[in-house]
Specification:
Length: 371
């Protein structure tokens, strides 16, 4: 079986990291993988398990992407095309596959409503659409996609890489010059509006007055970095909040958090939530999108209503004061992801989906990739 994956993301986090996990797992199951991604993509450089074909992808208005993808797909002749991202790839990738005469599936990762007409045009060429969470399933049904074409497959996490590690706290202290008594709240998210760093920062002045040992480490990059740095300074949070950037060694640092703050107001599922849970770190998050699929309120973390800053600050305050409760929630979170979000389940579910879509052709031999 040969699968062509289309991923427009340039950076190796979130959805692109999930594509890497999937390709590596599929390769272990004997599937041949092709990866169509933008030139210079971090995913392409980090995925030796796939044959990588760079294809310029310029966003939602790049109508010519249909022709470029069709030309490459015709040349490579995969058995099936799996489109993984937005940025125009979700719309143009399905139609390129249809024009090339190749069945296609799409993974929808975002928690956002779509106009019915746009959705019908986008999803028409796909044999199936993968939904990461119950919230995305509901949105797909609401825009008219038949229920039988919606396939629930959650994201996965490498539970061997993200695991509890007592030595991680000392790594954090050494890397970021933290005081020994620091209480560490991690935030792992792109620096974009919907992740709501600014909303969280507005809650922190009162918390740091009560707990001067509080340190908030924000991991990620994005267009709001300059504005957020200015806000940190304006709020007098310079000693307490650090924008730590993107870290490829994040798995070695996350277990050192006391808790994860995840204030996003839209979330398809939340890979950062899965990674923290796998590392035994409880989360305080807003009950939006697919977040409740990962965080069970009072069992593996704390959920608060969307936009309720008072409740969010109260939840942070309570967990920061309760190390035994953090340990209980973190251990339960680890068990939760081991049961429902491991990579073997992710790969097996996709193999089953591909076989279902391809039918009898799933076992057929594919021709060699042309040079």
């Amino acid at each position: 079986m040969r699968i062509a994956h289309v991923e427009a993301g340039r950076h190796l986090y979130g959805g692109a990291a999930q594509v890497r996990y999937l390709i590596e797992g599929l390769t272990g199951r004997g599937v041949e993988n092709l990866l169509l991604c933008p030139p210079g993509s971090e995913l392409g450089a980090a995925t030796p398990a796939a044959i990588v074909r760079p294809v310029p992808m310029r966003g939602d208005l790049d109508v010519a992407l249909v022709a470029r993808l069709k030309r490459e797909l015709t040349r490579l002749a995969p058995d099936l095309v799996h489109v993984h991202s937005r940025r125009g790839a979700d719309l143009y990738g399905g139609w390129a596959a249809a024009l090339a005469g190749i069945p296609a599936v799409l993974t929808r990762r975002v928690d956002a409503r779509e106009p019915s007409g746009v959705a019908q045009l986008k999803y028409r060429p796909y044999r199936a659409v993968v939904a990461l969470s119950a919230a995305i399933e509901r949105q797909l049904e609401a825009c008219g996609l038949p229920r039988e074409r919606i396939v629930p497959i959650a994201s996965g996490v490498d539970t061997q890489r993200y695991r509890p590690d007592p030595a991680a706290r000392e790594r954090l202290r050494a890397e970021f010059a933290l005081p020994h008594e620091a209480l560490v709240v991690g935030v792992v998210a792109q620096l974009i509006e919907r992740k709501r760093h600014s909303w969280l920062f507005a809650l922190l002045p009162d918390l740091v007055r009560e707990r001067p040992e509080l340190r908030v480490l924000c991991f990620g990059r994005g267009p709001l970095e300059r504005a957020l740095r200015a806000e940190i300074a304006e709020r007098g949070l310079g000693r307490h909040v650090l924008l730590a950037g993107f870290r490829p060694d994040l798995a070695a640092l996350v277990p050192g958090f006391d808790l994860l703050a995840h204030p996003a107001d839209r979330e398809g599922l939340g890979v950062a939530l899965l990674e923290a849970a796998s590392a035994g770190v409880p989360a305080v998050a807003c009950a939006v999108g697919g977040v409740p699929d990962v965080v069970a309120d009072g069992e593996t973390g704390v959920l608060v209503p969307h936009g309720d800053g008072v409740a969010y600050a109260r939840a942070l305050r309570a967990l920061l004061a309760a190390p035994a409760e953090r340990a209980r929630l973190g251990a339960a979170a680890r068990r939760h992801v081991e049961r429902g979000f491991d990579l073997r389940s992710l790969v097996a579910a996709h193999v089953s989906l591909y076989a279902r879509v391809l039918g009898a052709r799933a076992e057929a031999l594919s021709p060699a990739v042309p040079e």
